From TrEMBL:
Organism: Bacteroides thetaiotaomicron
Pfam family, one: Fumerase_C
Domain of life: Bacteria
Residues covered by the Fe-S hydro-lyase tartrate dehydratase beta-type catalytic domain: 6-158
Record key words, sorted: Lyase
Family of this protein: Belongs to the class-I fumarase family.
Name of the protein in its database record: Fumarate hydratase C-terminal domain-containing protein
Amino acid sequence: MKTITTPISEEMASDLHVGDMVLITGKIYCGRDAVLPKICKLIENETLGEYDIDLRGSVIFHTAVSPAGVGPTSSNKLEIEESFPLLSKAGVKMHLGKGVIGKNTITALDEYNSVFAVIPPVTALLGENMLSQRLVAFPELGMEAFYELEVKDYPAIIGAAHNESIY
């Protein structure tokens, strides 16, 4: 088991390999298909800083934040998977979700020293590991807005890293 604290350094990202079990502690962002294209647009327009979002060394969890808790959504949804390259280039070191991602996405992760980790769909367990939550951007999207969570010991398994995949 590897312990990861955010922000994730280049060295730590390089040391993550397919099949590694990890525990993530620190701040992570949450976004899924409704908001990630908007975050990518902010990157392209160089206006991400206006929302006080710093993606360097960050983790993005593919989830909505609701009163019922958080749980991973499928990372291979078109709007989510298309965001991997730009988000990784902007500094995201770990994309956290579930499902099979494509070969082109795996190659893009490798190009930017970023990884994809799968998280078990255990909403109740994850709730106990969440210390705080903050709405960061796009409140009009409700539970699919862009959130920042502070977590302790979030469990995950590296599913794609360094041009390899468990799938």
